[in-house]
Amino acid sequence: MGIKDIDISNVTYYDLNNQINIPVNNKIPLEKDKEALQAFLKENVEPNTKRFSSLEERFKFLIENDYIEKEFVEKYDFEFIKKLYAYLEDQHFEFQSFMAAYKFFNQYALKTNDGNYYLETYEDKIAMNALYMANGDEDLAMQLADELIHQRYQPATPTFLNVGRKRRGEFVSCFLLQPTDDMNSIGRCINSALQLSKIGGGVGITLNNLRGAGAPIKGIENAASGVVPVMKLLEDSFSYSNQLGQRQGAGVVYLSVFHPDIIEFLATKRENADEKVRMKTLSLGVIVPDKFYELVQQDADMYLFEPYDVEKEYGVPFSYVDITKEYDNLVNNPKIHKKKIKARELEEEISKLQQESGYPYIVNIDTMNRANPVDGKIIMSNLCSEIAQIQRPSKINDLQEYEVLGSDISCNLGSTNIVNLMASPDFGKSVETMMRALTFVSDQGNAKVVPSIYEGNKLSHSVGLGAMGLHAFLAKNHIQYGSPESIEFTNVYFMLLNYWTLVASNKIAKERQETFFEFEKSAYADGSYFDKYVNQDWGPKSDRVKELFAGIFIPTKEDWAKLKENVMRDGLYNAYRMAVAPTGSISYVGNTTASLQPIIQKVEERQEGKIGKVYYPAAYLSTDTMPYYKSAYDLDMRKMIDVYAAAQEHVDQSISITLYFKSTIAEGLYPWKDGRTDKMTTRDLSIIRNYAWHKGIKSLYYVRTYTDDGSEAFSVNECESCSI
Predict the structure, then answer these.
(1) What does the pLDDT average to over 609-614?
(2) Partner of 23 at 20 to 30 A CA spacing, among 105, 168, 455, 546?
(3) Tens of pLDDT, residues 173-221
(4) d(Cα 509, Cα 502) in Å, to the nearest integer?
(5) Phi/psi of residue 604, each to 5°?
(6) What is the dihedral angle through the alpha carbons of 539, 544, 549, 551, rounded to the nearest 10 degrees?
(7) How far are the Cα atoms of 213, 506, 530, 543, 569 from residue 526, in angstroms, in the given order?
């Protein structure tokens, strides 16, 4: 008997969990979740966890049977490992919900090769992460164990899942690549996509530099096939390269709204697109310079420019030309072939597609570059739209060798749990510990199979510390999401994250006597990055928010001036420090809400494979907090954007933002709907995208629409009068 042999008709936890969704006397029976949790641990976990007589026996078994690497274990005296385990046991960790335990043991816990037994508890997983990322440093291992067991810090899933394992994928979440406009580069990019999909997470690729369909090749007119066939090759590559069948390969391709193939690019996601061109699994993103918003506002014509000609004229790939700045010159240059379309027609196409499919993602490229403190140009984003880092193009010869080795991007991510970090005995020390863990992951980057990725990681040491659980924190503290207090709290929280990640990166640079590549050309080196902090007080203003930060150090203008001095003198180790990714399953394990977004449902319904529906009550849901848990679908998206904009002010990279709409919009939610149809329209999407751009939002991820017929049969989510 083992996990695989469990007779689900004989266990009680699914039934108990499902009872959460059946109101009893107009109340959500939350106690059923705790009962389901206890039943799951008793009926599933306890009988199917492999037991060992001692810690030494456990590690010996795991090493000898090729479950874990022995090298990281050998960096420690075993007495210390025992001490670390004793500390973890003393914390008396408990899962807070059925879903937390279910997700952990299903997706994260190490299992025997036959899948029949669990080989680790939550404490074992924490110990593995702490020991591995501390790299032999006992003090750091203890600090990391403290952050992890109290769930103040959550490494990205690839890190949390894979560290220490003998047979594993990489620790990074995703990669970004850019081919240039020649067959060698395109071929190398497809090979790189295959290799990266095999070892890691999603792959982002910009096809912006490729000439459009019908462009000349070696003087022959109408010879180029454009970007769509390359998209098809990439989609097939990701389907083929899927980490030994463990997960579907995933990729996103980006294209500028000024690329001549933009209409055909968007059409690949239409439900009625021809099978030859339809992209079933490949995600789409569009790169939007400020000039596009201006042309839409003016209801003007817009020109799409041939990248081949632009590169010939400017001497750099199309992605590196500032379209907003050069637009009139491009229009007036007779050597550059161009197409003319109506800006608002393209805007309408984007909105229609978002309404139909949720795509494309939006990258406000000029906003990204204006805020970019590092010398160079950001040209794209990643699979979840939160990465904003510079890249340098490579040049590949006919022997498939790098004549010029450029730099591409790997994403080393982790997340703070807002509720728990706000309760940290030392906010700054917690963040420094997280930065050291993330920096270790970056330093370990060994994707040598793609030299441009390896080079970029080696030069930048970039990481991305983010946050999850914003709505949980606000609800727990009786603050409405989108209220002035919620915006003020978000602003101060991310200012603190920014401050302490800078302190940590500066400390690491000083210790190692090393900075990121071309630090001296950055806005950090000349001090200009710090001007807004030195010239303005960013601390809490309202009594309510001051109360939330009581006992937590808030840097003054003088503290920022001192930090500025330190950074200008000793540098920073990490070119990029912060990025807010979407968080999925790991949010359940951390008993919190996903990323910075509002919840979707008070009791979330998930479809779990063959098992069916599983229910998850929002973290800290109670009679007291229920009024503060309004669904994202019932929220004015401008209020959500205001919250994200407060965070974006301090985040050097970007934030993944999903937009939520109901297909029938509630009366009074949006003033421009008054006297018009209550149905969601393309105009609504356009207004919200423009609002986001005006608020300084760098990127937008999916658009999710809740359709009128998408609701399920009666459940507690539809019973707004329910109390607990």
Answers:
(1) 78
(2) 105
(3) 899 999 999 999 999 999 999 999 888 778 999 999 999 999 988 888 8
(4) 10
(5) -80, 135
(6) 110
(7) 44, 15, 9, 36, 10
* The pLDDT of residue 471 is above 90: yes
Which residues are CB-neighbours of 222 under 8 A, at least 6 positions away? 214, 216
Pairing of strands 174-177, 301-305: unpaired
As a whole number of angstroms, the distance between CA 452 and CA 515 comes to 20
Dihedral sign computed on CA atoms, order 182, 187, 191, 197: positive
Asked whether residue 100 is domain-assigned, the answer is no
Distance CA(650)–CA(238), nearest Å, equals 34
- DSSP annotation of 211 reads P
Angle at CA of residue 126, ends 121 and 130, nearest 5°: 150
Residues ≥6 apart with Cβ < 8 Å to 232:
276, 277, 279
Alpha carbon separation from 643 to 147, 248, 481, 692, 697 (Å, rounded): 26, 33, 8, 11, 11
Q: What is the rounded average pLDDT for all residues in the chain?
A: 93
Asked if the structure places residue 347 within a domain, the reply is yes
Max CA pair span of the chain: 80
Residues annotated as catalytic are: 382, 384, 386
Residues 6+ apart with CB under 8 A from 332: none
Tell whether 533 is covered by a domain. no
Separation between Cα atoms, residue 445 and residue 426, nearest integer Å: 29
Q: What CATH number should be reported for the domain holding residue 333?
A: 3.20.70.20
- Both ends of the chain: CA-CA distance in Å? 39
Q: Estimate the crossing angle of helix 78-90 against helix 122-134, to 10 degrees.
A: 130
Distances (CA, A) of 183 to 204, 215, 225, 305, 603: 19, 14, 12, 20, 51
**Which residue do the tokens 């602003």 mark?**
491
In a domain, 313, yes or no: yes
Report yes or no: 105 and 125 within 8 Å, Cβ to Cβ: no
Catalogue the E-assigned strands of 209-315. Answer: 251-256, 283-288, 301-305
Q: Give the burial string for 512-549 (b: 16+ CB within 10 Å, else e).
A: eeebbbebeebebbeeebbeebeeeebbbeeebbeebb
- Residue pair 157/586 in contact (Cβ under 8 Å)? The answer is yes
Q: How many CA atoms lie within 13 A of 280 on its CB side?
A: 9
What the block records as the tokens of 499 is: 């401050």
Angle between helices 55-64 and 78-90 (to 10 degrees): 110
Give the structural domain span for 382: 174-409
Distance CA 310, CA 4 (A): 59
Beta bridge partners of 677: none
Domain count, the chain: 1
Residue reference for tokens 């036959």:
114
Q: Could you tell me if 95 and 104 are in contact, meaning their C-beta atoms sit under 8 angstroms apart?
A: yes
Residue 720: partners with Cβ closer than 8 Å, 6 or more residues away: none
| % pLDDT > 70, the chain | 96
Give me the count of residues in the chain: 724
SS3 601: coil
